[in-house]
Design goal:
With 238 residues, the protein is an alpha+beta fold. The chain has 4 helices and 12 strands. The protein has helices spanning 56-66, 111-131, 143-171, 228-233, and strands spanning 5-10, 14-20, 27-34, 50-55, 72-79, 82-90, 98-102, 105-109, 178-188, 192-197, 202-206, 221-227. It is globular, with a radius of gyration of 21 Å.
Length: 238
């Protein structure tokens, strides 16, 4: 089993390169480049082209499209102030051509390329589930202690954040303003959601402060009705 993968799908105008630099990293890269008018190709080494990092959850959604469980999947990535629209869609609802749109780059794959992409995505997901979800522990450390410490620290952090929000809520109990705001669910506990807002800010929001229904699937852009004070407290809005 190798540690990295790279495979290219090239056409006359657009090239797609799929890369995984290590089986221990829980993500892969899609790199797209275009041919120029002079016949040369964009050079990633000088910042040309487009690169998107896909998480394990997003790989699952790509596989779902490839398995024809759904006709399309779309999302967007936010980096600093830049938003990139992403979509994987079968042409005209048929399963002969797959369109991949990432920002201003569009790449269509035919049957053989689709089959290779399908096998590659499933292999990478299986490989990364095995290796990228295992803590990187030195031989001298105690795995049980390491794992326990991570879980305890996460629980403590979540509890502290919720307690801070609760105290802030008590101090602002007369405020009943609610704001509609776009976000993406990145994590969930019984009492709170980890939401990524525009600009990449991630905040734990108590479910009691969310006044709208929501799709629990991760990485789906959707609207939330949230108490205005908690958004101001966490500097999501000003």
């Amino acid at each position: 089993m190798v540690d990295n993968h790279s495979y290219s799908f090239f056409g006359q105008k657009v090239g797609l390169i799929i890369q995984s630099s290590s089986k221990n990293e829980p993500y892969i890269f899609f790199r797209l480049i275009k041919s120029k008018n002079n016949g040369s190709w964009e050079k990633p080494s000088i910042g040309e082209g487009k690169v998107i990092k896909f998480s394990l959850e997003e790989i699952v959604w790509i596989i779902r499209v490839l398995d024809k469980e759904t006709n399309s999947w779309s999302s967007y990535h936010t980096f600093k102030d830049s938003k990139t629209q992403i979509s994987f869609k079968w042409e005209n609802g048929e399963y002969h051509k797959l369109w991949i749109h990432i920002g201003k780059y569009s790449k269509v794959l035919e049957y053989a390329q689709i089959k290779i992409l399908d096998l590659l995505m499933k292999h990478l997901l299986k490989e990364k589930i095995q290796f990228a979800t295992t803590p990187n522990i030195s031989k001298k450390s105690n795995p049980g202690v390491f794992s326990s410490t991570i879980v305890q620290e996460e629980i403590i952090t979540n509890r502290e954040n919720l307690n801070k929000n609760k105290k802030f809520s008590e101090n602002n109990k007369n405020s009943n303003k609610i704001q509609s705001i776009d976000g993406i669910i990145k994590g969930e506990t019984d009492k709170a959601l980890l939401i990524q807002f525009d600009g990449g800010t991630e905040v734990w929001i108590p479910k009691s402060r969310i006044h709208s229904s929501f799709d629990k699937n991760k990485n789906v852009n959707q609207k939330f009705m949230i108490d205005d004070w908690i958004l101001e407290k966490n500097k999501v809005v000003t």
